[in-house]
Amino acid sequence: MATTKIWTVKDNLERTVNYAANPEKTIDPDLKKAIHYAGDEAKTESRCYVTGVNCNADTAFEEMSAVQERFGKTGGNVAYHAYQSFKTGEITPELCHEIGVKLAKKMWGNEYQVLVATHLNTGTLHNHFVVCSTNMWTGKKFDCNEGAYWKFRALSDELCAEHNLTVIKNPTGKTPRSIYFAEKNGEPTTFNVLREAIDYGIEHSRSFEYFKWIMKDMGYIMCLNPKHRYWTIRSANSKKSVRMYRLGDEYNNEAIRRRIHENNTQHWRNAAEYEHSRKQMKRFKPRVFVFRGSFKKLKSFGGLYAKYLHYLYLMGKLPKRNQRKPLSPEMREAWRHLDRYSRQVTLVSNKKLHTLDDVKAFITDTDKEIKEVTELREKVYNKLRYCDDDDRIRELKKSRDDCTTLLRQLRKEKKIALTIIEDEPKINENIRCEIQAQNLARGRKPKERKKVYER
């Protein structure tokens, strides 16, 4: 299994030389930096796995620069940086480097200069490719379009298959950084909640039909048609389905059937035993909710006060003696944002914001105050420039620091107020989903909207 990526390197040679004189500089990657990084001795075990294709590895920068100067192509995209990363523990450094050199020759042939370096500094072996963007013979720039990337990935998969390495059948897109770390920490993201539900359904199933019944009872709608290439799953309150293979290798069609078959050795006598085990299912412990205000004083208020209190009650966070657990997947996923709701409800309480109009007015007033404090701080800065008295300087610096502290607080409150407006539709939807899940759990059918007939 090898993942691949290509990106551009933009800079000019003069800046490259200046960067070489300052090796600690890590901003604005350029040609020299890319070559220096790819051939770093600390990452390649004293350059044992560095090879130049159509160039010498030790003089790669000079040779690439000479080609660019000969054709007058020293501007724009001066190089392309690519990588090929393999599955941890699946390949040796020698084979990793051999595949990287073969890939460079197949992809760029005898037309472009390429530096291939295998990095060994992490647990995952990977190849770096630094490609001169200028053709050695024609001076034409390499067209790194979408088709070039697909070709690069296809060639990489072919080489992996030749050496009996695993190939990703259904590659997924890049996961956002916040979601990646949340899933890594086991927090209830959308996919984690789905995985938890599927794992529980498989664990308590004695047949494929029983698995579908359990998932339906938990409030999930699944399309498990054997004629379909991909099976899908969604919560009863969601309109968008998720292809189950995207949840991981253990959640595709074949893996689901295999896991249910392996689970047949477990004997579940009746549905009552399933109901008892479902109540004992472990849940992820969310972050601690912090509300700096008076819960008793807010009981009599409406608007945003009441909405947040009701929302946090459904989440099982207010009051403290509330031991209930949310039923809907949407509300369980919202646990991950408890710190965000903590800041919002504290601002609503302290600033007495009853409606969204109050929040918008608060943002407008805050903007005016920020502008006034900024102008005041500028005046303090101007006075400091021409002040010679030490006592006066200390006084002005204190005023400057006070303005800075106030600005920081005002900007923070404005940011929280903006998140209140942003989260309002999502909170309403989560409350609706949770109430609907409670009604389904109690055996009540969801209320249908009455038809309105026009005369």
Tell me briefly what this model is.
This protein has 455 residues and is an alpha+beta fold. 51% of the residues lie in helices and 10% in strands. It starts with a strand and ends in a 14-residue tail after the last helix.
Poorly predicted ranges? 12-29, 267-272, 280-289, 295-301, 445-455
**Domain unit count:** 3
The outline comes out as flat
Assembly type of the chains comes to single chain
Q: For the terminal residues, how far apart are their CA atoms? A: 65 Å
CATH third-tier fold name of the largest domain: BirA Bifunctional Protein, domain 2
User: What is the averaged pLDDT score?
Assistant: 77
The CATH architecture designation of the largest domain is 2-Layer Sandwich
Order of helices and strands: EHHHEHEHEEHHHHEEEHHHHHHHH
Considering DSSP H and I runs of 4 or more, what fraction of the residues is helical? Answer: 40-55%
Taking strands numbered 1, 2, ... along the chain, how are they ordered across the largest sheet? 1-3-5-4-2
- Total number of strands: 8
- Helix and strand content put the structural class at alpha+beta
Major sheet: size, sense and barrel closure? 5 strands, antiparallel
Count every helix, treating DSSP H or I runs of 4 or more residues as helices: 17
The value of Rg in angstroms is 30 Å
Strand content: 5-15%
For this structure, what is the CATH class of the largest domain?
Alpha Beta
